[in-house]
Design goal:
The complex is a heterodimer of chains A (301) and B (314). Chain A is built from 13 helices and no strands. The two termini of chain A are 34 Å apart. Helices cover 69% and strands 0% of the residues of chain A. In chain B, strand 1 and strand 2 form a beta hairpin. Chain B is flat and about 85 Å long. The termini of chain B are close together. The chains are: A mainly alpha (301), B mainly alpha (314).
């Protein structure tokens, strides 16, 4: 037990104690220390600027199909050519990026936050609560996602909001499982007992102590969830979960362009594919890099 | 062990029931009525009432649910009015070809992923490792159908090596009668599956490398080749069971997409036809079936893992 230190204590033998700061500061430091994560962040910033601010400088008509400019190859006026409805591909990549990124990030955040709370509650209370709550996770994971979506598209009129809600409904299970697993070990730790002894309630323990300790898992999960949501969105569009042409996404561009691959209109496929892959790779870079730096086991070797 | 298996079986039953219930509720969320769909908008109210009575649609929902479960327990997935055949007969005629496509791709994906994963782990942070990681990174950052598109562009359109359409034969033998048509679908699904397996195999092999028994094997003077074959590879294989069991839904989705791209005749393509024709019994039957296969896959993986790895005791 350390009692009050004398005022003029000599320098500690193990060197000065460096303040590690809050979890957020640790996070920031690992981030900057990792080159791949920085590369990922830079790519994402570029893609976001391209999608959200690009249309301000590069005006294109993405609403009225124009029959005179159908399937034009890349050239003057249309750097990446035009598609089968006469829309400029570069401009459509910007507009499509907006909806794709919005869906990706919204789904990533919603599903992770919900999964986090769900998993923390399930793991913390354990016993019957855990058994019951985790079966719902199992059920969610066993319902085939793509099948469910095609089914839903028959019932509802597809919109971006509906897509976000549906994608979040099918993606919160993985973060819930991960956080639950961590909570199971965290709840037996001394600091949890200490809070209990001091009279802290379950809500306080979960919100103030369990959740901040899972920050590593959470941040890594968000990035992977965003990447997966962007990919799933692209796949759904290909399989016919169509949005109206007024809300283009990268997936719908790719799926429209595929029809013309045999005709040699490569510019209708590859720019959209490239930007999907680049964005998803960037999110995965961040996720992987952070996972490595949070994973103590890997640092040791 | 027996206790674990019983508990795990109980969980599987509960989860299956959950999937079936969700699917059943979805059926009842559908707008319109089955009677109007089938016998038409100009049918008299008497005819509609008669139709509903004949198929039990006038009964309360819990009773219909019970009938639905009862049929499932007897292996009856429903009846398609549009195709005028049972969903069971549809599954029986289409599933074997899916098994050919999915099975071949699974075998090839494992045959690539296991040696590559071990090689990456042994030469960690070397050229092989970076190349392997980069390749699988790129693959799993693509929508699954993009892999197929690139293969079609390269091998079917640019160089006319393989056809872009799968063999259309209704029988399995017919599929193998045109092996060149099978190449691209199987190759695409193999790559898609490999992307999922690759990182997992690598990290599993890295974990195995760090075990004490690896050090012991080296310390007693075993040649490195034997250490790798007998100790590293065999122990990494245990992880494959979990991997295959858990990736079943992923492989099924992949099969669905690949079938669509290559017009490969199978259950996935039938499913698409069903969505176009509003053939809900087929859509529901196939969804329930896929959910059940997923649950069974997880179950077999868990139990197999517990049986094969003597360190696991429940």
């Amino acid at each position: 037990m350390i009692t009050a230190l004398p005022e003029t204590s000599p320098a500690p033998e193990g060197g000065d104690v460096v303040s590690t700061g809050s979890a957020w500061r640790v996070l920031l430091r690992t981030f900057v220390a990792n080159r791949l994560a920085v590369v990922g962040i830079v790519i994402i910033v570029v893609v976001v600027v391209f999608s959200f601010f690009g249309p301000i400088f590069y005006h294109t008509n993405q609403f009225d199909p124009s029959l005179t400019t159908v399937n034009l190859p890349p050239g003057a006026g249309h750097p990446f050519g035009t598609d089968s409805s006469g829309f400029d591909i570069l401009g459509r990549m910007m507009v499509g990026g907006r909806s794709s990124i919005e869906v990706g990030i919204a789904v990533g955040l919603i599903s992770t936050v919900f999964g986090l709370l769900y998993g923390a509650v399930s793991g913390f209370f354990g016993k019957l609560t855990d058994v019951v709550l985790m079966r719902f996770v199992d059920i969610g994971l066993a319902v085939p996602v793509v099948f469910l979506f095609i089914f839903m598209s028959q019932i509802f009129r597809p919109s971006l909001t509906l897509l976000i809600v549906l994608l979040a409904i099918v993606s919160w299970q993985v973060p819930a499982r991960l956080v639950r697993g961590e909570t199971l070990t965290l709840r037996t730790r001394e600091f949890v007992h200490a809070v209990r002894t001091m009279g802290g309630g379950s809500t306080r323990i979960i919100v103030r102590h369990i959740i901040p300790n899972t920050i590593g898992t959470i941040v890594v999960t968000v990035t992977f969830q965003v990447a997966n949501a962007i990919l799933t969105l692209a796949v759904l569009q290909y399989l016919g979960f169509g949005l109206p042409p007024t809300t283009p996404t990268w997936g719908s561009m790719l799926s429209n362009g595929t029809t013309y691959l045999q005709d040699g209109y490569w510019w209708e496929v590859y720019p959209a594919l490239a930007i999907i892959v680049i964005t998803v790779v960037a999110f995965n870079f961040i996720g992987d890099a952070l996972q490595d730096s949070f994973d103590v086991r890997l640092q040791e070797r | 062990m027996i206790g674990f298996i019983i508990r795990r079986l109980g969980q599987a039953v509960v989860v299956t029931l959950g999937v079936v219930t969700i699917t059943f509720l979805l059926l009842h969320m559908l707008p319109g009525s089955l009677a109007r769909d089938i016998i038409g908008n100009r049918a008299t109210p008497q005819a509609v009432a008669g139709f509903n009575r004949e198929y039990g649609l006038n009964r309360p929902i819990w009773y219909q649910y019970w009938v639905f479960i009862d049929k499932l327990l007897h292996g009856n997935l429903g009846y398609s009015f549009v195709a005028n055949r049972t969903v069971d007969s549809l599954v029986a005629s289409e599933l074997p070809r899916d098994l050919v496509l999915g099975g071949l791709s699974l075998v090839f994906a494992l045959a690539i992923a296991i040696p590559v994963g071990v090689a990456q782990a042994v030469r960690r942070n070397g050229l092989v490792d970076y190349a392997g990681t980069g390749f699988s990174f790129l693959l799993y950052s693509m929508p699954q159908y993009a892999v197929a598109l690139i293969l079609i562009q390269l091998l079917a359109i640019t160089f006319h090596v393989f056809p872009a359409e799968a063999p259309q034969s209704p029988s399995i033998l017919g599929l193998f009668a045109h092996p060149s048509g099978l190449v691209l679908p199987v190759a695409s699904l193999t790559l898609v599956t490999f992307a999922q397996f690759s990182r997992y195999m690598r990290s599993s092999a890295i974990d195995t490398l760090a075990q004490d028994y690896m050090r012991t094997a080296r310390a007693k003077g075993l040649p490195e080749r034997l250490v790798l074959w007998r100790h590293l590879l065999r122990n990494s294989l245990i992880a494959v069971i979990t991997l295959v069991g858990l990736s079943i839904p992923y492989i099924i989705t992949g099969t669905l997409i690949i079938e669509q791209v290559f017009n490969f005749p199978g259950l996935g393509l039938e499913y698409f036809t069903a969505t176009l024709r509003d053939d809900y019994p087929v859509m529901l039957g196939v969804t329930v079936l896929v959910g059940m296969i997923t649950v069974v896959g997880n179950l077999v993986a868990d139990i197999g893992y517990a049986l094969l790895d003597p360190r696991i005791r429940y």
